[in-house]
Each structure stands twice: as structure tokens, then as C-alpha cells.
Amino acid sequence: MESLVAALPLGGAAAAAAAVGGLLAAAALAGRAGLVGPKNNGSNAPPAVPGLPLIGNLLQLKEKKPHQTFTKWAETYGPIYTIKTGASSVVVLNSTQVAKEALGEDVSSVYVEEFGKVISKEEIYQATVVDMMMCAIEVDWRDFFPYLSWVPNRSFETRVLTTEGRRTAVMRALIDQQRKRIARGEARISYLDFLLAENTLTDEQLLMLVWEAVIEAADTTLVTTEWAMFEIAKHPEKQDRLYQEIQEVCSNEIVTEDHLPRLPYLNAVFHETLRRHSPVPLVPPRFVHENTNLASYDIPAGTEMIINLFGCNMNKRDWDEPEEWKPERFLDGRFESADMYKTMAFGAGRRACAGSMQAMNISCTAIARFVQEFTWRLKEGDEEKADTIQLTTNRLYPLYVYLTPRGRK
Ligand code: HEM
């Protein structure tokens, strides 16, 4: 049975992506922050994997696939255990149930005092992501004439300050909801609990750290996945190739992140989508701090610099037929599969995207699952509907596709 559906409508799917992205961001950042296990060695601590004095379990983890060692240990020590990596202890979680407990449940609504009402998941996403993104592309003419910065621009200021106020109110409400959970004695091993336990952060720092993970992960990943599905629905022969690859590697298993290294065409689909549809088309502006020579031109200190990632990714000198969506271009042996910077989509240099791996994991798993379950066909006449809106390249026109279940057993 085939039915025409508007795939990934902004709202539900976006909120879902935000939730997934947010949770994964939390997990990744918690990892980066060095989230460590309980310091007390009381009887209720998770079992410890025996290791050597001083270095702990480091020698047992020296091979490149720690997740396999972790899984093996789980058979002996259970779904949650502690390992010692040198001087610190790390708690390893190996079951979905424990991991969900640690990462927290999906937030479905929250009471916002400033609004005097409970708001839904969609409204949370609107206030914390969509509206803030729209603000980022508001133009303040005073930016172009800094010597007139003293002139009020009331409509701009009101719009930006109101949006920021709403974002702050919603984020505060979300954080307070979690504080109450902790006060009820339901503390978890999670990014937010870790930040709250720090006790050294101001409320504003805390809010920004949590919000950053949401704003950077949600929309970018959603947009990439949606463009990939547009191209896949538009190119049946490439969709077949992807489906065949998934079938060969996964057979009847559901695609998970563990399969991704064995799915090179999927990887190429992801990177080609990033190239062709650069989700963040312009990098946040940089200031040139010193007189600089760039491409043999002199650039004086104080100049603002905008890098057009879309332009880099569509440059005819670098890419053969850049207008075409051709995942095969990444399989000609010139690119490393694991290289996240095949294109400029994640930026470059010291401020390059901190979540590129996470974005790949979320987006590739979603694309593969969509293709594993359904045959995708674009609505007739929509082939050229590739216009975009907003700061990230959201589709101007909703994506309409015919989905036919593949009837996987
Ligand atoms: C396909 C999805 C994504 C794309 C295309 C993307 C792209 C970018 C780009 C272009 C930048 C600016 C780089 C620069 O200024 O040079 C950036 C920064 C950043 N991204 Fe992503 N991003 C994605 C997903 C994510 C995810 C899932 C996270 C996870 C939290 C994330 C976290 C960040 C952070 C923290 C920064 C700021 C890095 C810094 O300023 O030092 N991104 N991203």
C-alpha cells in the first residue's frame, strides 16, 4: 500500500529530533565533561571491574573497540559497573533501561511561570530553537553603521529581547523541573545533574550550557536528515543501492549505530547531503584580530569575515557537477570513510563543529531506518522544490512523499 504523506513535518518530528538530539548531546557532553562515578566506595556503589593499581583498567581498554570490551564485562558485572581509567572512576551503562534512567525521560510539557500555563513539547521547541534561529537572522541596520549604534532601533530590540525572554523562561522552567526531580531524591547520572552538582555555575551559565546542546544539535540534524530523504525519494536507483547495502549488512536486524562503519554508501549519502544542502550555509562571522594576508590579499585588523560554507561546498573547481547529488563521489578512494570534514559543512579549524560524530550517528541511523522500513517516492512535480528558509537550510516547501512499507519480517 502506498500513501502520500508529508514526511518529517516541522513540529512533531522536529521536537522529536530535539529530544533525541538533546539527549544524545547530553550524553556526549557528559562524556566530554568527564562524568565520573560516585566517589564513595560504599556498599551500594556499582560493581568494580578488577584492574591494576594506579592505572586501573586502562591496559584492558587499549584496543580500538572499547564498546566490545564493555559488552563483554557486562556479562560478568551486570548492566552497570565502574571501571578505573587512571585516577578517575567511570560508570559504564550497558542496558537501554539503565541508560534511559540515566539520561532522563523525554520531556512532554512544562509549566512556565512567566506564561502562566503549561506548554507542549512543540511549544518548547518553538521557543528554544525555532524562534531563536529566526532571531539570529534578524537584520539590525546599525551593524552596518557602527558609528550610529547609539540610535535606538526599538522594533529590532523588542523582537530580540522578547524572544530571548521567552527562551530563558522556558529553559528555566525545564531546569527547575529537573531540580525538583533531584530534590525528590531521583538524581541521575546525566549532563544536567552533573552541571547542577557542580554548584560553581551561575544560573545564566547553567542555562546557556544546557541550551547550547539543544540549539546546536536539534535543527541541524533534522534538516540534514530531511534533505537526505528528499534526495533518496528523488533518486530511486540510489535508494535501491542504499537498501541493498543495508540488507547485506543488517539482513533482518534493525539498523543501529553499531552497523554504521559497515555501511559506506550510507556514509556517502550523509556527506553528499551535507555538501549539496549545507545545513549551516554561513559560518558565524569571525573578526580578523591582526593585519593578515589571505589568498595574497591584505585584510586589515578589525575586518569581519563571513565564510560561505555553501559556496565552498558548491565550488566548481573543487567538485565535479556540484549541483548534482552524487553520493558515489565520496567512494572513489580519495576520501577516508571516517573523515568528518570531507566537505566544509561542519566548518573547519579550532571552532569546527563539536558534534559532527553525534550528528552522523543520529542522522545516518534515522536515514537507514527510514529506508529499511519504506520505499520512498517523491510527489510528482516536487523534484525541483529545493528552496530553503531560516538560518539552517529548512525546506521552504514541505516534503511530500509516497511511502510503501517494505514488509520487513
Ligand atoms: C548535521 C548536523 C550539524 C551541522 C551541519 C553542524 C555544523 C556546525 C557548524 C558549521 C558550526 C560552526 C563551525 C565554525 O564556526 O567554524 C558548528 C558549531 C558547533 N556545533 Fe555543530 N553541526 C551539526 C550538529 C551538531 C550537533 C549534533 C552538536 C552536538 C551538540 C553540535 C555542536 C556544535 C558546537 C558545540 C559548536 C560550536 C563549536 C565552537 O564554537 O567551538 N553540532 N556546527
Automatic annotation (TrEMBL):
It is found in: Membrane. PROSITE patterns: CYTOCHROME_P450. One of its GO terms (biological process) is ent-kaurene oxidation to kaurenoic acid. Keywords: Heme, Iron, Membrane, Metal-binding, Monooxygenase, Oxidoreductase, Transmembrane, Transmembrane helix. One of its GO terms (molecular function) is iron ion binding. It is a single-pass membrane protein. GO terms for cellular component: chloroplast outer membrane; endoplasmic reticulum. InterPro entries: Cyt_P450 (IPR001128), Cyt_P450_CS (IPR017972), Cyt_P450_sf (IPR036396), KO_chloroplastic (IPR044225). Belongs to the cytochrome P450 family. PANTHER family: ENT-KAURENE OXIDASE, CHLOROPLASTIC. This is Ent-kaurene oxidase. It comes from Setaria viridis. The lineage of its organism: Eukaryota, Viridiplantae, Streptophyta, Embryophyta, Tracheophyta.
